[in-house]
Amino acid sequence: MEYEVIIIGGGIAGLQAAIQLGRAQRSALVIDSNQGRSNLCRTYHNILGWPDGVSGEQLRKLGRQQAESVGIQFMEDTVISAEKGDHIFRVKTKQGSALEAKRILIATGILDRIPDMPEIYQCLGSSVYICPDCDGYEIKDQLTLVAGSGNPGANMALTLSYWTDRLIYINHEQKKVDSRIMKKLKEKNIQYIHIPIKEAIVEKGDFTGFQLADGRLLSAGKCFLAFGGNEVRSGIAKQLGVEVLENNHIKVNRRTQETNVKGVWAAGDVTVHSEQTAIAMGDGLQAAIWIHKSLLQEK
Q1: Contact predicate 58/142, CB 8 Å
Q2: Closest CA to 129 of 116, 143, 152, 145
Q3: DSSP bridge pairs for 84
Q4: C-alpha span between 65 and 58 (Å, rounded)
Q5: Fold agreement (2-112+230-298, 118-226)
Q6: How many C-alpha atoms does 36 have within 13 Å on its Cβ side?
């Protein structure tokens, strides 16, 4: 089946783009693997209009309902390949669908590297955090554990020292921390522990601490994770010949969100590193506006 637009990724950027394209009366399909990071966040706290927070799940649900109300179609599947023909893009999915579109919007996001601690997922966004720009405020003046790996974890602890001086950094993977960074940790009185975590302790959905491999229990009501090595999901972009930066983020025209490949746009966390829900919304909206304009020019 042929669409005017195929949106690869049904997270925040993809949904906002879908809503705008639907309102522009464009035929569009959102293909979503349902494995994006917005599925994991229990509460976003820094979004306009939601002072008490809103979960990624709720935002996605409301966004899909809004997009469907203006005619957008959805498919739960994973895109495995995409190629550009003379005047059309061809997309194939894991479940065997073969689709065509005049325009492609890549909104595949990134995947955070989180340690193998299943119990911690229920706390993401409520008492366990990943982004200091989003949630540094949530730990203001509170004892906070930082679980991480080498320099990324140490730098996270240093960043968080703006909000609290009660920090403990646990180098779970015991990777090397540069001497200059160790010096800064000491200057900020950040306690450093070079011992793996045995398990996260969660009670009634709230993080309460870590048990270390040596048997010690560290109790705290707040935690940040910083392991580095997040996966930037730009594989489909590379198949299409899209320019990708050294860190695997997709390079776009910041005014239009279009890539170097005519007819291919990108939006959200998979583009220039920002990792903010509100920015992802803006990216998706901007991309959709310019996709609509490009289709008008064809006529």
Answers
A1: no
A2: 145
A3: 89
A4: 11
A5: yes
A6: 29
Q: State the CATH architecture for 118-226.
A: 3-Layer(bba) Sandwich (3.50)
Six-digit token string for 24: 């522009």
Q: Write down the domain spans for the chain.
A: 2-112+230-298, 118-226
Mean pLDDT for the chain overall: 95
The predicted pLDDT at position 1 comes to 75
> For tokens 């990324």, what's the residue?
152
Residue 299, pLDDT score: 66
In tens, the pLDDT along 163-209 reads 999 999 999 999 999 999 999 999 999 999 999 999 999 999 999 99
According to DSSP, the residues that pair with 115 across neighbouring strands are none
Cβ atoms of residues 23 and 117 within 8 Å: no
Q: Options 2.60.40.10, 3.50.50.60, 3.40.50.720, 1.10.287.90; which CATH number does 2-112+230-298 get?
A: 3.50.50.60
Whole-angstrom distance, CA of residue 167 vs CA of residue 147: 11
DSSP 47: S
For residue 18, pLDDT over 70 is answered with yes
User: Hey, what's the torsion of the CAs at 160, 162, 166, 172, to 10 degrees?
Assistant: 20
Answer yes or no: pTM beyond 0.85: yes
For the chain, the first-to-last Cα distance in angstroms comes to 21
- Given a cut of 90, is residue 84 above it in pLDDT? yes
What's the confidence (pLDDT) of residue 272?
78
Helix axes 150-160, 179-187, angle to 10 degrees: 30
Interval 252-273: pLDDT, tens: 999 999 999 999 999 999 997 7
Which residues, 6 or more positions from 34, have their beta carbon under 8 angstroms from its beta carbon?
10, 76
